[in-house]
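Hi, here's the filled form for the chain we discussed.

Project: internal
Contact: R.S.
Residues: 280
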Amino acid sequence: MKRIGIIGSRVVFLLIGFAAAANARQEKQDEKAKPAQQQHQQQQAQAPRQQQQQHQQQQAQAPRQQQQRQQQDNAAKQQQQQARGQQQQQQRQQQDNAAKQQQQARGQQQQQGQQRQQQDSPAKQQQQQARGQQQQQQGQQRQQRQQQDNRSAQQRSPEQQHVQQVAWQGDRAHSWQSEHRNWQQRGGYNGYRVPDDRFRSYYGRNHGFRIYTLPVMYVGGERRFQYGGYWFGLIDPWPEYWSDNWYDNDDVYVDYYGDGYYLFNRRHPNDRIAISFYLN
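And the returned structure, exactly as it came back:
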């Protein structure tokens, strides 16, 4: 029993020793952990302060950042305004240059026009003088022809006038609107064609004459007249509403109209009598 008691007491002491050792170790660990806890606590205590300090710094820096942003924005706006101003100036300069060029071109055109007028004026004057001379010559020729016609009319005897009147009455139409045909209806003009220079010299609107003064002959029942160096014959009858002595009193002329040669009467300008030219 004593042994058991001794053993039990020993066990108790051993347990107490272990507990004391464990407590000592725990205390050592606690002592070691105290600085870390203190640091953690200090850090926790310092964190709000740091946050406050950072917040205060941010609040203090915010106006500066805003100022910087405003300065940057103002600088960008100024640059944009300057660029716009430069563009506008360039556009204005270009417009001004274009306007100046247009003015210069107009001035040059006006000068050229004046020079042309100056150059053309002598030529125009010469042309006008030439036309005036031609008109005077044509007027003189007409007067001479009328004088010759009057003389020849006076020289003719009543018998000659009667014969000519009878001959012309045979070529008079009963209904000219239905009896006459133009060269297009006849299939085109196939007779002799007068050269242009000679035609302009003797024929056309400005070269009138009266038929009774011309040489006359009959070929195959067709009456032919000689004028301007050529013989020409009337293919159509003359209108019934013309005067009986139109060949004595009416001025006629030969002209080319569209598709062939025609005889025109100045008293009846809308009537055209188809004629054909012959060399002999």
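Let me know if anything looks off before we file it.
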